[in-house]
Structure formats: C-alpha cells, structure tokens
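re: that chain from earlier
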Amino acid sequence: MSVACILNIGSFHDYKNPHIVTLYRDEALWGLMEKYKRFWEKLESGTKVLIYGEYRNVKGIYSCGFIKAKEYNTEPVQEWKKNPTGYPYHITLNLSVRPNKLNNVKPITLKELSEMGVPFFKGEPKTLISIIFFDESNIDKFNELWVIFHKRNDVQEPVISVVKDELDEWVGKRFLELRKGVTSEEFQKRVNDIFRMLGFEVIEFPIGRYPDAVVYLPEPYKSFNPFWIVVDSKNISGYNLPEADKRAMEEYINSQKREALNRGLDPSKCYFLFVAPSFEKRAEEKIRSIQDNTRASGGLLLTEALLNLTLIKFKYGNKVRIDRFTELIRGAEITKDKIDSMKTFS
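^ sequence. v structure.
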C-alpha cells in the first residue's frame, strides 16, 4: 500500500486526554478535524498506522495497527467531552498494541524520530499536527519505523484479510466507497447516482430548504405505477431522524406535490426515503409520524441494502422491475434481505 500515517493523539493518559478512551474500544475509534479532511480522504481500509503520543512524560510511538474503516459522522461522541462533534472524520482501527496496556512497550522516542529525519519530527518539536501523512515520496521512511517498532516490541502483525464478496466483483469503486466513508456531499451524490443507474430519473437540488433528490419513474414504467420518491441521504451511522429532519421531510413532500401535478402525476402517489449506513430503532417511529402527517409512505434504506440493489440490477438487468420498488417502502427499515426479494420482481 502506497500511503500510511502517524496519528498524534497527544497523551495516552485519559486524565490529560479524555478522547483516548475511544481507542480502548474493541473497535478502536479516532477522529480528525475538518482541516485534516484532505489526508483522511486518502486513507483506506488496510492503511498502516503508527500511534504517537506522550506516556509517563516520554513522547514517542507506542502503538501500531491498520485502518479498518472510516466514516464521516457529525453525531456527538460521548467520550470526547471537550468537543464531542469537533472531530467528524472518524477512523476505526485494528490495533496490535492496546493504548491502555503500554507498561512494557519500548517506544520509538521523539529524540529518535528527530535523529532519523522523520518529517515533522526534526528538531524535536514541542507540538505536532494531528496526522503525519506518508505517500510514495516518503513511504520508505514510514516502513523503516514500522519494522523497528515491530522488532523492538516483538509485535505480531495482524492478518488483514480482504473478503471478496459479490459486491466486490460486480459493483464499481465509486459505489463501494460508500462502505468506507465519504463526505456527506459525496454520500448524497453517490446515492443519487445509484438511483440513476437503476433507471430512475433523478432530480437533484441545491443545498437549502430542499430534499437531496426526487426520484421519478421513466417511460414506459411510469404508465404502470406513476409514483415519485423524495430522498434524503444522511451519512450518519445510527441515524435517529431528529425532529428538525422530520419536519423538513414533511415540508419537502408538501412542496413537491405541485411539481408532481406539473408532471401530470398523482400527488398522492408520493413516497419518501431516508438513506443512511444504519438507523436507530426510534427512527421508525418518526417515519410513521411523517406518514400520518403527509399520507405518504416512507422507509429507511440502509446503504448496504442499496448497494445490494445495484448488484441485483447488474446481474438481472431489465428483469428487475423498478416500477415495483415501492412494494419495499412500508414504514420500516429496508434491509438487504428485503432487497433480495427484488430478484423475483418480474
């Protein structure tokens, strides 16, 4: 892999740095601020990571591992008490050395890093940026540090297995990156592109008091079942559909009925979808409330389920009847298993 990074976490002591406790999780979590977005976007699953910080007044590299996943998430992280929402560029890590078990670790110290001429460590600086990024131009230096740390601490490198499922074989990188984590803007664009690839007409809207998109059936499907769907994409895991988003969706539905009339469609043939990586259970209650207030049928579409729909479309082509898609929208979460039923839509 041609990229890697050193994460500067500040201190490994939780009384100095409360954020560190999310690295204690079974799936260690770290976050970066907006200004590091350009580096975060270049990281991917399997990227090597070294963890730098202060432990017992000695600064150095104390841990290592791989990036397991990444996600743009603006929901507050409870453990990050000083700024729960200030680090939305999340990274999930598979660490070989747990940050709460450092007593016997032999670090690569700040002095050593300076003497080795590692970027940003020259002169033993008192402060550092939060991520030191390595690419083709300096990856050899990172690899040297990686080998030194592993040999010094007799660390067994975890095996990172790449599971090849049908999505890997059939679906392109642009859509599969929805799994790894993209910005909210990119998430919205790629969800819309999937609907377009499935054969729908997709009308996108600018940022503001508008939905992300409204989806219409093209000819000849429109004559069979002339529905339309208001789509709101949320790049948030555990999305709970807050009250503000609920009211906004109700406004979107009502405002788009006039456009439906202009298109010669029945305004009552309206559906709505929230698309997200995962949802909290109470989101279904909010869906039902929107349905009561608008008389439109709604659903919660999981990102993985939408990706599975692309797979089915690639495999079965025009046998997939997109005019029957609304049979899945029943005021609840639309899962991969439910999407599988579209194989029989004919």
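The first helix runs from residue 37 to 40.
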